[in-house]
UniProtKB/TrEMBL annotation:
This is Gustatory receptor. It comes from Digitaria exilis. Keywords: Membrane, Transmembrane, Transmembrane helix. The keyword Membrane applies. The keyword Repeat does not apply. Residues 1-24, 364-385 are annotated as: Disordered. Residues 364-373 have a biased composition (Low complexity).
Length: 453
């Protein structure tokens, strides 16, 4: 056999003589990501990324051209237009340098995050759509609805900011006319205003897109944890509970690893930009009104809103995941109290007839512990972040030993999952500490500038 002749495959060995065998699977490097179709749930996401010129999930033939166009659009709208506006405008706005720097850095951070995630993993793997086959029908349906509603949420953040900035830009150019007031210079003023509005729209859209994408991914884990907590009391296999919890922990660790730099750098950027804005607004003889500092206020609101989207999503999924420990503890206590072992101190022990009934067919419905009126009142007073612990199957239904249940509770107590940022769990305690640090820095800065003590 010649050296360059490939070795026969098992399929070719069983084929008839003279027939040409074809491999069942192509090489791994020749796979291409699927394109959008009419019923694709990612069609809107791909269209949005394509309009923002950051769609890198295409095939190898067009990846070079799409990457080049993406770099060109980002360099033009996020870097060149703000720099040209700062250099070419004869009249500068009061806080224009700080606003342009903050928006450009935030857009660069979001662009680098989206480019890295979409380029390496693809949009379907990034949104965990390839893992939905292991989830229930309720989780899949809820996640598809959330994917469709993500663009309405993105539009609710981007469009008001764009309309407010467009109104401010039009007012400023009409009032100041930096290139002159003649008929010829009117076109220059209109072109400069349109370019600045396009640059603002592009940068804020990229930043909010990265934040909404993180929120959508976290919502999938919230759906899983909600279904997991709802069906916890009906699960009789501790090993199945451990496998499901470990699966969720692995996915949360991956999400944390992918977005930890974005959350940390976004937190640093927002903190620095807000303190710089506060220092500039409280300096002596500083003019602060809507006509002068309106763009600075709008930029600050956009950056803080994007950061709050990420922190709220991370804290919510962390709270949902850690609340599973209370669900397991309540299930363990309910099963222990309702066990069939005779308690000498309890006069209301089960009779022998009931003991003989323990091998009878099991009812598929859980045992209710309260009346319907009390349950409705509890449902109304329960917060949206809590989990349902009011219904558990009794011990003779689950038939799980005390040692297994205690081991499960101990495992959940010592393996608290959630979104982490370089080892720090993003929960409510972490947010409270962060708020106190930020508030202390603000009061210190105000004490140094305007004398608040």
């Amino acid at each position: 056999m010649a050296p360059d002749t490939p070795s026969p495959s098992p399929t070719a060995a069983t084929a008839e003589p003279g027939s040409v065998s074809t491999p069942l699977l192509r090489r791994r490097g020749s796979y291409t990501r699927s394109m959008s179709h009419a019923r694709d749930e990612l069609r809107s996401f791909r269209s949005c990324l394509r309009w923002m010129c950051i769609d890198h999930s295409s095939s190898d033939a067009s990846s070079a051209s799409s990457a080049a166009s993406s770099y060109l659009v980002f360099a033009s709208l996020a870097v060149a237009v703000p720099c040209a506006a700062l250099a070419a405008l004869p009249q500068r706005r009061a806080y224009d340098t700080q606003v342009q720097a903050s928006l450009t850095i935030s857009a660069a951070l979001a662009y680098a995050t989206l480019y890295s995630l979409v380029r390496r993993r693809g949009l379907r793997r990034l949104l965990y759509l390839d893992r939905l086959r292991h989830d229930s029908q309720d989780v899949r349906a809820g996640y598809i609805v959330q994917l469709a509603g993500s663009f309405r949420l993105l539009a609710c953040f981007v469009l008001p900011c764009f309309l407010a900035d467009a109104s401010y830009k039009v007012f400023w150019y009409c009032a100041n006319r930096p290139f002159g007031g003649g008929a010829y210079w009117w076109w220059w003023n209109a072109a400069a205003c349109a370019l600045e509005m396009a640059s603002w729209m592009y940068r804020t859209a990229i930043f909010f897109m990265a934040c909404v994408l993180f929120r959508t991914i976290c919502y999938l884990q919230i759906l899983r944890m909600t279904g997991f907590a709802r069906d916890f009391g009906q699960c009789a296999d501790v090993a199945a509970v451990l496998r499901q919890h470990r699966r969720i922990r692995v996915q949360l660790r991956r999400i944390s690893h992918r977005y930890r730099r974005f959350i940390l750098y976004c937190l640093i950027l927002v903190t620095v930009s807000q303190f710089t804005a506060l220092l500039a607004a409280t300096r002596p003889h500083a003019q602060v009104n809507l006509a002068i500092a309106g763009e600075l206020a709008l930029c600050s609101m956009s950056l803080v809103t994007g950061l709050l989207i990420c922190l709220h999503s991370a804290a919510k999924i962390t709270h949902k995941t850690q609340s599973i420990t209370s669900v397991a503890a309540a299930w363990h206590a309910d099963a222990t109290i309702n066990s069939l072992e005779r308690d000498q101190e309890n006069p209301r022990t089960p009779s022998k007839a009931f003991l003989q009934h323990q091998h009878a067919p099991v009812s598929p419905f859980p045992v209710a512990s309260a009346s319907s009126g009390e349950e409705s009142d509890d449902d109304e007073s329960r917060s949206e972040d809590s989990v349902d612990t009011s219904r558990f199957a009794s011990f003779h239904v689950t038939n799980v030993s005390f040692q297994k249940r205690q081991a499960l509770v101990t495992y959940l107590e010592n393996n608290r999952a959630g979104i982490t940022v370089f080892g720090f769990v993003v929960d409510r305690t972490w947010l409270h500490a962060l708020f106190m640090i930020e508030f202390s820095l603000v009061m210190w800065l105000l004490g140094k500038t305007i004398g608040i003590s």
